[in-house]
Specification:
Elements: E1 2-7, H1 11-20, E2 26-32, H2 36-46, H3 54-59, E3 63-66, H4 70-81, E4 86-90, H5 97-110, E5 114-117, H6 124-129, E6 138-144, H7 156-171, E7 176-184, E8 193-200, E9 205-211, E10 218-225, E11 228-233, E12 238-244, E13 253-259, E14 262-269, H8 278-292, H9 300-320
Parallel strand pairs: 1-2, 1-3, 3-4, 4-5, 6-9
Antiparallel strand pairs: 6-10, 7-8, 8-9, 10-11, 11-12, 12-14, 13-14
Helix pairs in contact: 4-5, 5-9, 7-9
Length: 323
């Protein structure tokens, strides 16, 4: 039985509590949150022990789940790692690159399991797309949300775009060559909307637009690659694949086209999307990595790489902003 403690029981933290209660082989021992309001609600609803200090909760656990504000990630990760506890931490990995670099170093030295909460890796639409071989050479991404003051402690890059940065880095097996970025502060002190172009050494190009000041929500990624197109709708959980038809393609809509190499048959497929709980899946994968002593799906290295690109984007935006 793996004993787990949760740090931060605000809006997202409560989702984590609900899912931890349903995961086999886990005992939820308690939580830590300095907010009296959050703590009173959780004690009443979950009849879960509130620990008055972070250290005491860490001592009582085998693994900790950090759903606290980004500014608290480094200190909580460090405290847990130095006591050889496994760590799950919500994205972004840390508040600064210096903190992230130190976390990676400590996690390696302690030889513990560490996972970053890039939950979109577990989105069923992406999982369905991955059943098709993905080797994108051009990527188009739009991630738009309505304004919510709760998320403005960090820029739209670290709040929203970092999801897509992480996914793109996991799909494109090449180093980043160039980054071009523009962004604007609209209703907060950090960029609320940004447009970014990432160029990779292998020739792949990714164009990303993220906004948290939109009238409607959108979370779409389009992948263009040799002989196929893959559209992923993270919000509505839909995947569309357009490609040359093969004998394995059954019961798909298809039509013929003339090319310079003769007639080709195009197939349009909509893979079956399995109903999944992405948060539960990522927490289960973390537990599985601990039990089976294997690498986590989204490691501290993955979290660091996503942060590295995100901070490079912020640096580019800062240079381009007119003061």
């Amino acid at each position: 039985m793996i004993k787990v403690g949760v740090f931060g029981v605000g809006h997202l933290g409560k989702f984590h509590l609900n899912n931890w209660k349903e995961i086999e082989g886990v005992k939820l021992v308690g939580f830590y949150d300095p907010s009296e309001l959050n703590s009173d609600e959780v004690k009443k609803e979950y009849t879960l022990k509130r620990f008055k200090s972070a250290d005491k909760l860490i001592d009582a656990c085998d693994a900790i789940d950090i759903v606290a504000p980004t500014t608290e990630h480094y200190q909580l990760c460090k405290q847990a790692i130095l006591k050889s506890k496994h760590v799950f931490v919500e994205k972004p990995l840390a508040n600064t690159m210096e903190e992230a670099r130190e976390i990676v170093k400590l996690a390696k030295e302690a030889n513990i399991k560490f996972q970053v909460g890039h939950v979109e890796r577990f989105n069923p639409a992406l999982l369905a797309a991955k059943e098709h071989t993905l080797n994108p050479m051009f990527i188009e991404v739009h991630r738009l949300s309505q304004f919510n003051p709760r998320g403005t402690d960090v820029s739209v890059i670290l709040d929203l775009m970092i999801h897509d940065i992480d996914i793109i880095l996991s799909l494109v097996k090449s180093n980043v060559k160039n980054v071009f970025a523009n962004g604007v502060n609209v209703l907060s002190d950090t960029p609320d909307i940004a447009n970014v172009r990432i160029e990779f050494d292998n020739g792949c190009v990714a164009n990303l637009t993220s906004s948290r000041i939109s009238m409607k929500k959108m979370r779409k990624m389009r992948l263009f690659q040799k002989d196929s197109y893959v559209g992923i709708d993270f919000l509505d959980k839909k995947t569309e694949i357009i490609k040359y038809k093969t004998p394995d393609d059954k019961n798909v809509f298809s039509f013929d086209i003339e090319t310079k190499n003769g007639k080709k048959t195009i197939a349009i497929a909509a893979p079956v999307i399995k109903e999944t709980n992405a948060i539960k899946m990522e927490l289960e994968s973390f537990v599985d990595a601990i039990k089976k002593n294997k690498t986590t799906v989204v490691s501290e290295i993955d979290g660091f790489r996503a942060m590295e690109v995100a901070h490079l984007i912020l640096e580019k935006i800062s240079r381009n902003q007119v003061i």
